[in-house]
Design brief:
By secondary structure, the protein is mostly beta strands. The chain has three helices and eleven strands. Strands 8-7-2-1-11 form a five-stranded mixed β-sheet, with no helix packed on it. The protein is globular and about 40 Å long.
Length: 149
């Protein structure tokens, strides 16, 4: 399901006194990028602990579990994570960490030896196996270490 964000439109509508109702897709829920923790704590040493300190979270707010097999998460430089066989339960969030680890129902690992998310600006894009855009989230800040999408 597609999800869009328009802070400018929402602010303009609020200023004009208009009531904004959610789109049908938003009302039914969505699978979307929820959070990006892009600057892992401490020095960027490329240790597995440091690599796993950066992550992206995907949330399912639909009323049913969703198979994410073949879905991808990419950054602006086209670093790509492709979901294997994985089902995200209704109301659940999965954390995708950059480094190595053992996958669970709540945490997946990319197995990389280098960072994915830039410490100042980047964009996470979520797509279906056919390449259809589902959601994206961007940040442009060095003042904080993460962004909520």
């Amino acid at each position: 399901m597609l999800r869009t964000r328009s802070v400018v439109a929402a602010a303009a509508a609020a200023a004009a006194g208009l009531l904004l109702l959610p789109s049908p897709a938003q009302a039914a829920g969505s699978v979307h990028v929820y959070k990006i923790y892009y600057d892992s704590p401490g020095s960027d040493t490329r240790s597995n602990t440091s690599l796993n300190g950066e992550y992206v979270q995907i949330r399912n707010t639909t009323p049913a579990a969703v198979s994410l097999k073949g879905w991808t998460v990419t950054d602006a430089a086209n670093h790509k994570y492709t979901f294997g066989t994985f089902t995200l339960g209704k109301g659940k969030t999965v954390t995708i960490r950059t480094g190595r680890g053992t996958n669970t129902s709540a945490t997946l690992y990319q197995g990389r030896g280098a960072y994915v998310w830039n410490n100042d600006r980047d964009t996470a894009t979520l797509r279906t196996p056919s390449g259809r855009w589902v959601d994206n989230c961007s940040y442009n800040s060095t003042r904080v270490d993460y962004t909520m999408c």
